[in-house]
Amino acid sequence: MSKRIAGPEIERMIQLLAKLPGLGPRSARRAALHLIRKKEQLLAPLAAAFAEAAEKVRVCSICGNVDTSDPCLVCTDPRRDASMIIVVEDVADLWALERAGAMNARFHVLGGTLSPLDGIGPDDLNVKQLVDRMAAGGVKEIVLAVNATVEGQTTAHYLTDQLSGFEVRITRLAHGVPVGGELDYLDEGTLAAALKSRTVF
Q: How do residues 107-127 score in pLDDT, each as one tens digit?
């Protein structure tokens, strides 16, 4: 049995930090020590920011994004093209596409992918909300920006079936060779997808 080397408050902080993605127990201890050493500059402002976020953060009732307002800033931005909706698996994907800045469209966050083995069915995702948005009219294109996994592709096929009754163009992200990628370093699945998704040069 390991000896306790810190008070329960510090132990709790380490345990909570260890639950974050990419942080194990050892990294959590290092992060906790760093925060404690920089108590005034880091720990106190971080605790205040977390408390404020816990109080104010909301899930957007339209698209599923997280923000401090509902509807979120993405949904209320009048400069965005309301005729195009990019469907993503989770908020991290929405943020990644926003960082890329390639399209000025609206979004819809599914909240995951279909995965019968994990007990995740259509009712566990924000599919009905997407269908409701389509029924409201004005949408001309749906971009399925889901991951190129078995679950992602299963979800894409399911969504295509659910949206088949609407007059809307359904597209998906291209799969294949990344910008700057060398063919010799790519796996067979990526190369096969690149060949199938080839375009006129």
A: 999 999 999 889 999 999 999
Structure tokens, 115: 């995965």
Q: Which two tokens stand for residue 30?
A: 């290092």
Domains and their CATH numbers in the chain: 83-175 (3.40.1360.10)
Task: Measure the CA–CA gap between 86 and 173, rounded to whole angstroms.
Answer: 10
- Identify any residues that bridge with 85 across adjacent strands, giving them in sequence order: 106, 142
Secondary structure (3-state) at 85? strand
User: For residue 155, which of 109, 102, 100 has the smallest C-alpha distance?
Assistant: 109
Q: Is 114 within 8 Å of 154 (Cβ atoms)?
A: yes
What's the whole-model pTM score? 0.82
Which DSSP category does 115 fall into?
Answer: B
Which ranges of the chain would DSSP assign to H, the alpha helix?
8-17, 25-37, 44-56, 73-76, 91-100, 127-135, 150-162, 188-196
